[in-house]
Automatic annotation (TrEMBL):
InterPro entries according to UniProt: PEP-util_enz_mobile_dom, PEP_util_AS, PEP_util_C, PPDK_AMP/ATP-bd, Pyruvate_phosphate_dikinase
PANTHER family with a match to the protein in the record: PHOSPHOENOLPYRUVATE DIKINASE-RELATED, PYRUVATE, PHOSPHATE DIKINASE 1, CHLOROPLASTIC
Domain Pyruvate phosphate dikinase AMP/ATP-binding: 66-289, 299-350
Cofactors: Mg(2+)
Organism: Pseudonocardia oceani
The EC number(s) this enzyme carries: 2.7.9.1
The family this protein is said to belong to: Belongs to the PEP-utilizing enzyme family.
Top enzyme category: transferase
Identification of the protein by name: Pyruvate, phosphate dikinase
Length: 910
């Protein structure tokens, strides 16, 4: 159906939470609460489809204006009031509501419908003149900032000046006469900034506010947030138009945000912030420090009791932590929003297992509610509790973690300093949505105002950033670039340490130690519990339960990329079920580098064979240790892959050294002659694009004996381990194959060496030979390559480079920021697999390989193997295993279990 003819406006009573794509998260949940019979102010939702139409064409569908009029008339008739009437006027809020929660990223306008006439009608109806003029100044301030793009500082400066003239400290103390004058000043600001008066027509206010919400979908901060959270840019936002209820009607009114469980720790029990005589934006903006729900219970026991009952009902209905916004208007409770709440990583694991124990969800559902990204956050270090420390103050523990960095006082500085490699802590009185870039760049966020439901706390929790908020003792002088706390002055550039788990703020740099979750992963549950307090112990048990459930559910095996016995042991402790990639080039660094130089500089077969003979026992010892560490588990060893010139001195430095020596008459000295010979070899091996040059299988075919030496070392190591009673399960991988003929040629040599070693040892374990699929041609000709390969391992780093034509070392710094900003992709293809391009090649190679060799083993050994989103693709594509760095093995295990459950729901693998 054409958008012009579609239903673009839905009353709250028409929808439900399943319509999140059309009504957005906020609209769908308002409809759901209405359906449940909860006290929701009436209203209607303009759909995401209308937003997309507007953003594509720059105008609304013709039918939208009519549909809004009809919905508005129904609302007016139901309430017996008209929008902006001069007697008891109806006022509405205009709020964004995308499918995915984007806290603070898009716009809201409250009190729409007020003008120079209706403000008097509102004062008369409410019997409160101060309330009416306070609401009017809020409308002009919010409308001016969000709809008319007037800098917020102009309004804030005038508001501060008004408070100073009145001799009051807070907004709620401004007398009515001063508010009336402030409204006039705000109107002058609008006239001066835009050249026109503040709109007096209520419907014009409504239409302009709706367009502002639509436009806020594409603000820089909204796009940045979506890129970080991997939210599609083409979804658009719904707009929710709701009858206003007022929390700023005196001390019997107020507004709050609450959670059915603590979103920071996961602890059960109602939890939240409340402000009396305030509107909703006051709570999340953090401009006044809030009261607790216990304080709210003392102020208004009846409303608190009703809220508690509703919170329990919503948590039971959604079977999850709920984030709720509410307003009390002169003792009457109204529900303004609910959604499944954002939470910290620790809270996610605790809440998931708590709900299982409470019989609200199954273990499968619990596993689906935690992510590999959250598990990775729990593996970050924590402050050493035994270290000496200087406590400056305490705030609210808003988002856990240990953050150490140089103090900065604005977002731009945070971004600039972080870009040059300096860890920073962003310090603000309170954050606002424009601080998002700085919050992303910082290691931690510290505010002097705001509660645990303020903008800083909510956004920090969502992105896993350490945050302490509401540290009231801190005085922030952003202009002077300093903060003061209890007589201590901290200037920009000095170091602070903040603990988001306790709310503590320390001077200087505190040392960090391994988290209990890492201790659990490396040493076991008992070891972790021995050093954990009660709360941390609960977390470790939750991680253990869900990770074990993931291991039971998953189909994908998880291996590690490890190059030494030490790496392999750590990986095995982390739960790795083998090694998917051992990069043998890492065994030639350090003191062995000279042996590679000797091999490269060999002037004949005799010298080359001598160099290889010297390398053989060293390689064999490496492989013996590796196979001993991974005894009984598959171990895939990749033959030498990088260009040989990487093992030689820098060409420019060497040329300068030779030139200087010759210019100073030292050209005949032995060390200079050696440098000349070395420079000749470096020049001979120099390539314009070495990543596409002499490396991988090409080395094996071009340097006689090189791969044969490595294969012999591997085979002899396996034979030695077998003779000692071990179970070596070794596999040899040939890199950078683009043609099956390359693999046939190299296999002829390899098979001969394996036969010789087996004969000499009186028998040896079977050693499968496979290849890396890291070139598009290899994927496209996988059917033929499978004839010579017993396994495929997809090298997705190089496959991404060669498919996109990207040089990873160059493009990430030069063009990726532009590509991300312009939406060419939403995440780096080196971070998360490009499913449409690289993924299509993988699927093609998987299918072709299995058609030729049904028992072919298929894996992936690029770092995509530890990326949560990519793991789901590899499961769906039908791979047997993923391989990643040891630290990411638990992440891959968890996500492989989640992928299996999602696949069961969706209908299976490839």
């Amino acid at each position: 159906m054409r958008p012009e003819r579609a239903q673009l406006v839905f009353d709250f009573a028409e929808g439900d939470r399943t319509q999140v794509d059309l009504l957005g998260g906020k609209g769908a949940n308002l409809a759901e609460m209405t359906k449940l019979g909860l006290p929701v102010p009436p209203g209607f939702t303009v759909t995401t489809e209308a937003c997309r139409y507007y953003l594509e064409r720059g105008e609304e569908p013709q039918s939208l204006r009519v549909q809004i009029t009809m919905a508005l008339r129904r609302l007016e008739n139901d309430l017996g009031r008209r929008l902006g009437d001069v007697v008891d006027p109806l006022l509405v809020s205009v709020r964004s509501g995308a499918k995915h929660s984007m806290p603070g990223m898009m716009e809201t306008v409250l009190n729409v419908g007020l003008n120079d006439y209706s403000v008097k009608g509102l004062a008369e109806a409410a019997k409160d003149e101060r309330f009416a003029w306070d609401s009017y100044r809020r409308l002009i301030q919010m409308f001016g900032r969000t709809v008319l793009d007037i800098p917020a500082e102009r309004f804030e400066h005038e508001l501060d000046a008004t408070k100073a003239r009145a001799g009051v400290a807070t907004d709620v103390e401004i007398p009515v006469s001063a508010l009336i004058e402030l409204v006039e000043e705000f109107k002058h600001i609008v006239q001066d900034a835009t050249g026109r008066e503040f709109p007096q027509d209520p419907r014009e206010q409504l239409d302009l506010a709706m367009r502002a919400v639509f436009n806020s979908w594409n603000t820089d901060r909204a796009r940045l947030y979506r890129r970080r959270e991997r939210i599609q840019h083409d979804l658009g936002t719904a707009v929710n138009i709701c009858a206003m209820v007022f929390g700023n009607l005196g001390e019997t009114s107020g507004t709050g945000v609450c959670f059915t469980r603590d979103p920071a720790s996961g602890q059960p029990g109602v939890y939240g912030d409340y402000l009396s005589n305030a509107q909703g934006e006051d709570v999340v903006a953090g401009i006044r420090n809030t009261l607790t729900l216990e304080d709210f219970a003392a102020l208004d026991p009846s409303s608190h009791a009703e809220l508690t009952r509703i919170m329990r009902r919503l948590e039971t209905h959604y079977r999850d932590l709920c984030d709720i916004e509410f307003t009390v208007e002169r003792g009457k409770l109204w529900m303004l929003q609910t959604r499944v709440g954002k939470r910290t990583a620790a809270a996610a694991f605790r809440i998931a297992t708590q709900l299982v124990d409470e019989r609200l969800i199954t273990s499968d559902e619990a596993l689906a509610r935690v992510t590999g990204h959250q598990l990775a956050q729990l593996m970050f270090p924590q402050f050493d509790v035994d270290a000496e420390r200087v406590l400056l103050t305490r705030g609210m523990a808003a988002s856990p973690g240990a953050a150490v960095g140089k103090v900065v006082f604005d977002s731009a500085t945070a971004v600039a300093w972080a870009a040059r490699g300096e860890p920073v802590v962003l310090v603000r009185r309170e954050t606002n949505p424009d601080d998002l870039e700085g919050m992303i760049a910082a290691t931690g966020v510290l505010t002097s105002r705001g509660g645990k439901t303020s903008h800083a706390a909510v956004v920090a929790r969502g992105m896993g950033r350490t945050c302490v908020c509401g540290a009231e003792e801190i005085e922030v002088d952003a202009a002077g670039r300093t903060l003061s706390v209890n007589g201590t002055r901290v200037a920009e550039g000095e170091v602070l340490s903040i603990d988001g788990s306790t709310g503590e703020v320390f001077a200087g740099e505190l040392p960090v130690v391994a988290s209990p979750v890492v201790i659990y992963l490396e040493q076991g549950l008992d070891a972790a519990l021995a050093v954990a307090d009660e709360q941390t112990g609960e977390l470790v048990r939750s991680v253990d339960r869900l990770l074990r459930h993931a291991d039971q559910a998953r189909v994908l095996r998880v291996r590690a990329n490890a190059d030494t016995a030490e790496d392999a042991t750590r990986a095995r402790d982390m739960g790795a079920e083998g090694i998917g990639l051992c990069r043998t080039e890492h065994m030639f660094l350090g003191e062995r580098r000279v042996l590679i130089e000797r091999l490269i500089l060999a002037d004949g077969p005799g010298a080359r064979d001598a160099a290889l003979a010297e390398l053989l026992p060293l390689q064999r010892a490496d492989f013996v240790a590796l196979l001993e560490a991974m005894d009984g588990l598959p171990t895939t060893i990749r033959l030498l892959d990088p260009p040989l010139h990487e093992f030689l001195p820098d060409r420019t430095e060497l040329a300068v050294r030779v030139a200087v020596a010759q210019a100073t008459g030292r050209g005949d000295e032995p060390d200079v002659a050696a440098d000349v010979t070395l420079l000749s070899a470096v020049d001979r091996l120099h390539e314009s694009n070495p990543m596409l040059g002499l490396r991988g299988v090409r080395l094996g075919l071009s340097v006689p004996g090189l791969f044969a030496m490595q294969v012999r070392a591997i085979a002899e190591a396996a034979a030695e381990r077998a003779a000692a009673g071990g179970r070596p399960l070794v596999e040899i991988m040939v890199p950078l194959v683009g043609s099956v003929m390359e693999l046939h040629l190299i296999r002829d040599e390899m098979d001969g060496v394996l036969a010789q070693v087996a004969a000499a040892a009186g028998g040896a374990p079977h050693i499968p030979i496979g290849t890396m699929i890291e070139l598009p041609r290899a994927a496209l000709t996988a059917r033929r390559i499978a004839e010579a390969a017993e396994f495929f391992s997809f090298g997705t780093n190089d496959l991404t480079q060669t498919t996109w034509g990207f040089s990873r070392d160059d493009v990430e710094a030069s063009i990726f920021a532009t590509y991300l900003d312009k939406g060419v992709f939403t995440v780096s293809p080196f971070e998360s697999l490009d499913r449409d391009g690289v993924g299509a090649l993988i699927r093609m190679a998987v299918q072709a390989g299995r058609e030729v060799r049904p028992d072919i083993k298929l894996g992936i050994c690029g770092e995509h193997g530890g990326d949560p989103e990519s793991v789901h693709f590899f499961h769906d594509a039908g791979l047997d295993y993923v391989s990643c760095s040891a630290f990411r093995v638990p992440v891959a295990r968890l996500e492989a279990g989640r992928a299996a459950l999602a696949s069961d729901t969706a209908g299976g693998r490839l």
